[in-house]
Amino acid sequence: MGHFFTRILGADAVSAGKPDPDGIYEAAAILGVSPFELLVVGDAVSDVHAARAAGSPVICVNYGYNYGTAIQKACPDTTLDTLASLPNIIARPNCFDVPGQGVTTPPVLAGSLRGRAMRPKGGAQF
To answer: Of the candidates 32, 76, 91, 106, which lies 20 to 30 Å from 60 by C-alpha distance?
Structure first.
């Protein structure tokens, strides 16, 4: 997977794993953005909890393993059936207004997806 990205931030790079927001804070620092501007894309309830703790908007795919509970019950900002639809969601202006945060532009996803070559299965080249 490493050949798809220039940087991978894993659980071993932070002091506490999800649902603690440390990984989101670290990703935001690396990208030079606020956690409020960083879009978290996940598949688990712990992703939603970490994003909420950091103040980040969060999208989840519907096919993660959550012990038989639908991810919608964790209240992500939206859900996707496939990551292939993610660029269309990000491109919509004002689609991630986070209550109390005033986010009015598309959030950053490991650097903007705009102008990036899309890899098979929806991965972005960074």
So the answer is: 32
CB 126 within 8 A of CB 5: yes
Q: Which two tokens stand for residue 44?
A: 């688990």
pLDDT in tens, 94-116: 665 544 443 333 333 443 333 33
Contact 40, 59 (CB under 8 A): yes
Between CA 111 and CA 126 the distance in angstroms is 8
Q: Cβ(74)–Cβ(52) under 8 Å?
A: no
> Cα(83)–Cα(69) distance, rounded to whole angstroms?
20
Task: Extract the tokens encoding 72.
Answer: 């919608």
Say which amino acid occupies 2. G
Q: Computed from CA positions of residues 60, 63, 65, 68, in that sequence, does the dihedral angle turn out positive or negative?
A: positive
